[in-house]
Amino acid sequence: MNTNIYQLPEEMVKEIYAFVPNWVKVYLNKKYYLKYHKFIKRKCMKHDGYFRNIIRLDFDFIFQQSCSENMKQWLLRKQYKYKNNVFLNYAYLLEHLCIETESTKCRNILHFYIKKSGLNKNQHKKKVSKVIQKEWSN
Q1: In sequence order, which residues have a C-beta less than 8 Å from that of residue 27 and are 6 or more positions away?
Q2: pTM over the 0.85 mark
Q3: Own/partner pairs for 55-59, CB < 8 Å, 24+ apart?
Q4: CA-to-CA distance for 57 and 11, rounded, in angstroms?
Q5: Which is it for the CA torsion 90, 95, 98, 103, positive or negative?
């Protein structure tokens, strides 16, 4: 698919690379992700769809970076509503999405950060979500 760029001279590739925006360079490899991920944070991390796609595609490296940076905010974000469910915080919603999409790598990473924050004590006794039932009408 991108085989034509390898036929170009090295100097020309460097010139073309200078015109590529930083938010596009993020997706090239790990090195560029770590260097330029702040551009993604400004651009699309505010939207929940970004994290849903990361979980759905099971991108564990990106999810781990996001967890390490955002876990405190996710735990403070109380009473999050999603598809007729109310979750205690955003981290429990992400866990629900991991179960729903069968992304075990992301779920293991999320469990590590939840355990690190101290929320896992007696978690089996806690009710982390409740279902909102719509009124029954005839």
Answers
A1: 33
A2: no
A3: 55/94, 55/97, 55/98, 55/101, 55/103, 55/106, 56/97, 56/101, 56/103, 57/103, 58/101, 58/103, 58/104, 58/105, 58/106, 59/106
A4: 35
A5: positive
Query: What is d(CA 110, CA 128) in angstroms, rounded to the nearest whole number?
Result: 15
CA angle in degrees (0–180, nearest 5) for 98-70-38: 110
Cβ-count burial 66-103 (b if 16+ within 10 Å, e if not): bbeebbeebbeeeebeeeeeebbbbbbbbbbbbeeeeb
Q: Look at 77 and 20; give whichever has higher pLDDT.
A: 20
